[in-house]
Specification:
The complex is a heterodimer.
Chain A (H helix, E strand, L loop, with lengths): L4 H15 L3 E5 L3 H4 L2 H6 L4 E3 L4 H13 L3 E7 H7 L1 H10 L5 E5 L17 H7 L4 E3 L4 H13 L4 E4 L21 E4 L4 E5 L3 H14 L4 E5 L2 E3 L3 H11 L1 E9 L4 H12 L3 E7 L9 H7 L4 H15 L1
Parallel strand pairs in A: 1-2, 1-3, 3-4, 4-6, 5-6, 8-9, 8-11, 11-12
Antiparallel strand pairs in A: 5-10, 7-9
Chain B lengths: L5 H25 L4 H6 L1 H11 L14 E4 L5 H11 L39 H14 L6 E6 L6 H12 L5 E7 L2 E2 L2 E2 H4 L5 H7 L3 E6 L3 H11 L7 E6 L22 H10 L10
Parallel strand pairs in B: 1-2, 2-3, 3-7, 6-7
Antiparallel strand pairs in B: 4-5
Helix pairs in contact in B: 1-3, 1-4, 1-10, 3-4, 3-9
Classes of the chains: A alpha/beta, B alpha/beta.
């Protein structure tokens, strides 16, 4: 049974905390939404309710990390990145402290809360801060593995998670490796690179393309920083055309990261699917993906446009 | 009242005077730094590092050490001078302050200097980190104490009050805040730039224990910091009334000296005010 990403996050954190007494959780009055409430129920003495005050929460986490704790700072992605940006940069990243920042309800699919709660720039902000690792997992299986992996990794991490259930991209026996992309589908005509829940939309787009005789290669890129340069270069050399798909503004996120790699290492035709530099609004996930040009159909059309330009 | 003898107090005052000499020399030679706030905090830092805090300069990472966080990171020259006098590193190193490749950044970097607990300089952030250390220490049953020096201009930052409400909510009593209330910030008197009075009432209303002292009276500083240790069930702030640029006549109370280094002639006058001859060795 496929779980919602937030459920996978909440349950995994509890499992890890049973093994690792240094894990502590800081919450800004959103535990029932983000699902760190499971941790709060089992480990009340290691759960710190910080109230609606994210800047202080980030600094308190830094102080706890100095004492050898492994703090998970949990709030919505918008507040982790925008509200507490300077605290993330100076108290956490500049000091290279072992703080795990988890931005929930990320991107446009944020539980029908509208523009104020849709993190469309969090990856850009976090990626631009030195010493950070930025991860955007696709589904429940991968989220569980990512949470384990970032506890093993020593240093600041921004993990963005989504709220809902998304079709599984992770194959049987999947093993997340920090900084590595995963091949989800083989194909020689064009490459679709997705991050987060958009990778499942890429798989669907590949099916649409297949009906017109186009075989798309699909790469899932969970780690946005450090980006997997090798996989991007290989895909560009083998297929010649790239489409990126991200649950984020097309500036600063996956599309930008891939374009940076291509421009420096393997220039190739590309198009970026994502939020086209605008704020979002309320609506259901499918409605939003459709209206903002992020549906599988839109990804397929972007791939066809790349192929037309190449021919 | 502290049981220190007059002679012991005088000894600490002499150390503070030396720290001030280092401060003006360091900042003048570097052509960078913040003399006003580094001079106003000198007596507080002396009391902490030479009497109140349990620290070992030869083991800066000693896990049971008391922690000091300079939330007003622009007071770095004062802290470096104190650490050098206390033996964390050679005072010779002060000559590199603010220069390229120096470990002594104009705002302190925890990874570059022994004795710096956390990098600060973006105002408002240090108190939250101090609170995180205090909460983690309490969780682990550790008995050391956390001291945090906050600036008055810095108290205009909202994050300070987020941290204040959180420390009181969690009844954190292993944390002492010292507030360097010198009354002057970069653009002028605090009361004109953005009033923070009634400061003691503000902290009291956040459920903190509040003490007010003369931040240049060594006995008062030590007495306050010692009695803060005895307060249980709530955090404590010592509001230290100080003078910006204390000890250098032409800098005292002047906003112009918030972040301006003295030139050679001004340095000579500062050292004369501090009864410190140029080149004089300190034993």
């Amino acid at each position: 049974m496929t779980e919602a990403v937030r459920e996978a996050f909440g349950h995994t954190l509890v499992q890890l905390a049973r093994e690792n007494p240094n894990i502590v959780v800081l919450d800004a009055d959103l535990a029932s939404s983000t699902r760190v409430v499971y941790f709060a129920q089992e480990f009340p003495e290691r759960f710190f309710q910080m109230g609606v005050a994210e800047q202080n929460m980030m600094g308190v986490a830094a102080g706890m990390a100095l004492m050898g704790k492994v703090p998970f700072v949990s709030t919505f992605g918008v507040f982790a990145s925008r509200r507490a940006c300077d605290q993330v940069a100076i108290s956490v990243a500049h000091c290279q402290l072992n703080v795990k920042i988890v931005g929930a309800y990320s991107g446009i699919v944020s539980g029908n809360n509208g523009a104020t709660h849709q993190a469309v720039e969090d990856v850009g902000i976090m990626r631009a801060i030195p010493h950070t690792v930025v991860i955007d997992p696709a589904d429940d299986v991968e989220t569980e593995q990512v949470v384990r992996a970032i506890v093993d990794y020593e240093g600041p991490v921004y993990l963005r998670v989504t709220r809902d259930v998304w079709p599984r991209v992770s194959p049987e026996g999947y093993n997340f490796v920090l900084g590595k992309a995963t091949q989800v589908r083989e194909g020689a005509d064009v490459t679709l690179i997705g991050s987060g829940m958009m990778s499942s939309q890429c798989v669907e787009a590949a099916h649409i393309l297949s009906q017109s005789g186009i075989e798309a290669h699909v790469l899932h890129m969970p780690t946005l920083k450090p980006i997997d340069v090798e996989s991007i270069v290989k895909a560009a050399e083998e297929t010649g055309g790239i489409v990126t798909a991200e649950n984020h503004n097309i500036y600063g996120g996956l599309g930008s990261a891939v374009a940076e790699v291509l421009a420096e290492h393997a220039p190739a035709l590309m198009k970026r699917v994502g939020i086209q530099d605008c704020f979002g609004e309320c609506g259901g996930n499918a409605e939003l993906l459709c209206k903002y040009g992020m549906s599988p159909q839109h990804i397929a059309e972007a791939a066809q446009a790349v192929l037309q330009r190449r021919n | 009242m502290s049981s220190l003898s007059e002679q012991e107090i005088h000894h600490l005052e002499e150390i503070a005077r030396w720290i001030r000499c280092h401060v003006v020399r360091t900042i003048s030679e570097a052509g960078a730094g913040h003399p006003g706030g580094s001079l106003s905090e000198a007596d507080i830092l002396t009391a902490l590092y030479f009497y109140v805090m349990q620290v070992d300069p030869h083991r800066p990472e000693w896990e049971d050490r008391d922690r000091f966080i300079l939330s007003k990171g622009h007071g770095a020259a004062g802290l470096y001078a104190t650490l050098a006098e206390r033996g964390y590193f050679s005072p010779e190193l002060l000559k590199t302050f603010g220069r390229i490749d120096s470990c002594l950044q104009v705002h302190p970097d925890m990874h570059m200097v022994p004795g710096i607990e956390i990098s600060t300089g973006a105002l408002g952030q240090g108190l939250s980190v101090a609170l995180g250390i205090a909460l983690a220490a309490r969780m682990d049953g550790r008995s050391f104490r956390v001291y945090c020096l906050v600036g008055d201009g810095e108290s205009q930052e909202g994050q300070i009050w987020e941290a204040a409400q959180t420390a009181a909510h969690y009844k954190v009593d292993n944390l002492t805040v010292i507030l360097d209330y010198n009354g002057v910030q970069l653009m002028g008197p605090v009361s004109e730039v953005m009033e923070i009075a009634p400061l003691a009432d503000r902290w009291r209303s956040f459920n903190w224990a509040v003490m007010e002292i003369d931040g240049h009276d060594m006995r008062q500083i030590i007495t306050a910091l010692e009695s803060a240790r005895e307060i249980k069930g709530k955090p404590c702030v010592v509001i230290a009334h100080t003078v910006k640029g204390k000890g250098v006549s032409y800098m005292e109370g002047k906003a112009a000296w918030h972040g301006k280094p003295p030139n050679e002639e001004q340095l000579a006058r500062a050292l004369a005010d501090l009864r410190c001859n140029v080149g004089e060795a300190h034993d």
